[in-house]
Write a structure and sequence with these properties.
With about 325 residues, this protein is of the alpha/beta class. The protein is about 35% helix and about 25% strand. Helix 3 crosses helix 11 (about 310-325), helix 4 crosses helix 11 and helix 5 packs parallel to helix 6 (about 180-190).
Length: about 325
């Protein structure tokens, strides 16, 4: 029997597995993450990359949900598959389990690059996307930010925001968890040691003075900033929770990373008739200058930040290259 040469080659190709610990302290600057994410969006808008609709399955009793996402980065010549699985029968932190991975393949050689834990990828990608959304919708004279929430996204938000928007100088934070508040301050100090961040007790009063409101709180938050709390010309970015549906309903303009994703995952922002506002512009088109983010200085703009797997691919590839160059991870003879 003649053995298939392709099969022989596959068995000789090890797979590099990069754990959460392997990736935890791989150095990558916020500006580099923002640049990688922007390049991914521009490539998608140009038709150089593919980002098909995600697949999902859910337990009918609501115990679990799983997603599968496939993407091809035509400029990096990388193909990737991302999976996520959340098990949450009690809908609280005591029983919740969440696992997410991404596997990268070199589309020039056909070789696998790595299988990775994806938690840090998401923790970096999402604030980078917010930073770009703000950059493209911000008033020219804007300088004030209110950050609501101190979880993973809140802790990474400000360094990435400032990497793309250095003119934002007055920074305010509302949070209820002391350790989270401390972590936001610490991570900002590591990136911008001279930046000043003020803790506020009243997020509604702070929103009235903010040019940008970043809502990154968890589902348990009691904060729900309404459109009446927003100043003229402001931008609100929904990443997690913290905004009421009126901020979308009453917005002068709506911008999203993906209109399709917003219809799937933004249903909690629907109006009393169960309908969502139409998206006026998507980020890939704005970055490629086929659409505009802001038209007038006085517009109130609602921004919806939802993930596209291509941005995960870009960030994962950057992390994988550095981790492998440093000899991190474990090689597994998966096809042996």
């Amino acid at each position: 029997m003649i053995e298939d040469p392709l099969s022989t080659r596959d068995r000789a190709t090890p797979l590099r597995v990069l754990s959460r610990g392997d990736l935890a302290d791989v150095p990558v600057a916020p500006a580099e993450v923002v640049r990688a994410v922007e390049e991914a969006y521009i490539a998608l808008a140009a038709g150089d990359s593919d980002n098909p609709r995600k697949l999902s399955v859910a337990n009918p009793d609501g115990w679990s949900v799983a997603y599968a996402m496939l993407g091809r980065d035509g400029r990096r010549r990388v193909v990737a598959m991302k999976t996520s699985y959340k098990f949450d029968p009690g809908h609280d932190r005591t029983t919740k389990r969440y696992y997410t991975t991404i596997t990268l393949y070199d589309d020039t050689t056909g070789a696998p690059i790595a299988m990775m834990d994806c938690s840090r990828v998401g923790a970096l990608r999402t604030p980078a996307v917010s930073a770009l959304l703000v950059r493209e919708t911000l008033r020219r004279d804007a300088d004030t930010v209110l950050l609501v929430g101190t979880g993973t996204q809140g802790r990474n938000a400000l360094p990435h925001l400032l990497a793309a928007n250095p003119q934002l100088r007055k920074l305010m934070l509302y949070g209820t968890h002391p350790e989270g508040i401390e972590s936001v301050h610490r991570q900002l100090a590591d990136y911008a040691p001279h930046a000043l961040l003020e803790n506020v007790d009243d997020p509604y009063a702070a929103a009235r003075t903010a040019d940008v409101v970043l809502a990154t709180a968890g589902p348990g938050t009691e904060v729900a900033i309404e459109s009446e709390h927003l100043k003229s010309g402001s931008v609100v970015v929904l990443v997690g929770y913290g905004l009421a549906p009126s901020t979308l309903r009453d917005a002068d303009r709506v911008v999203a990373t993906s209109a399709e994703q917003m219809t799937l995952t933004g249903t909690d922002m629907a109006d009393d008739n169960g309908e969502l506002r139409r998206v006026d512009a998507e980020l890939p088109q704005i970055l490629s200058r086929r659409a505009v983010g802001r038209r007038r200085a006085e517009e109130k703009i609602f921004v919806y930040n939802s993930g596209l797997v291509l941005t995960d691919v870009a960030v994962a590839h950057a992390l994988a290259e550095r981790a492998i160059a440093e000899g991190r991870g474990t090689e597994v003879a998966l096809w042996d």
